[in-house]
Each structure stands twice: as C-alpha cells, then as structure tokens.
C-alpha cells in the first residue's frame, strides 16, 4: 500500500524515511483561497473586520462576509477535491 511517497509492505515501512502525510483538502483550500474570486471575498471580509474592530459600540458583525468567503473557497475546492483522491 502506498501513502504519499512512503511505501508500506505488510504494515512495515521500508528503509525510506517516512514523510508526513498531507491532507489534500487543506492543500486545495490554500490554492483556492488564492483565486481571483476568493481573494476578492477575503478582502471584503478583512475590510469588514477592520471597520467593526475600529468601532467601540456596534452591532455589526462580519458573518455575511465570512460565509461569502467560505462559500467561494469551498465551491472551488468541490470541483477539484475528488479528482485528487484515489
């Protein structure tokens, strides 16, 4: 069985050094967060956080902006994730 670049035979790793397994979901989330649409929604979220943080008394929060960013990122991930899973 193969995990990453390390070969495992009958539960015993070969003489190669073991490499840490990388979660493909986290890798894709990072790549998708760098796309044009995700960068735009993340900028809107950061502006909102700055605006809300600068006020001492406000009922505003940035829930909508956060959900917009997460939706955009996860939409991108959903199109790519299962192509990388074996």
From TrEMBL:
Keyword match Repeat: no
Annotated Ubiquinol-cytochrome C reductase hinge domain residues: 23-86
Keyword tags: Disulfide bond, Electron transport, Membrane, Mitochondrion, Mitochondrion inner membrane, Respiratory chain, Transport
InterPro entries according to UniProt: Cyt_b-c1_6 (IPR003422), Ubol_cytC_Rdtase_hinge_dom (IPR023184), Ubol_cytC_Rdtase_hinge_dom_sf (IPR036811)
TM regions (residue ranges): none
Disulphide bonds in the chain: 32-76, 48-62
Coiled coil: none
Protein name: Cytochrome b-c1 complex subunit 6
Origin species: Xiphophorus maculatus
């Amino acid at each position: 069985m193969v995990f990453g670049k390390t070969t495992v035979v009958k539960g015993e790793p070969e003489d190669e050094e073991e490499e840490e397994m990388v979660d493909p979901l986290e890798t894709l989330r990072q790549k998708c967060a760098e796309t044009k649409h995700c960068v735009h929604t993340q900028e809107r979220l950061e502006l909102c956080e700055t605006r809300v943080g600068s006020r001492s008394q406000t009922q505003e929060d940035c829930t909508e902006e956060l959900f917009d960013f997460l939706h955009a990122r996860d939409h991108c991930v959903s199109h790519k994730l299962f192509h990388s899973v074996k």
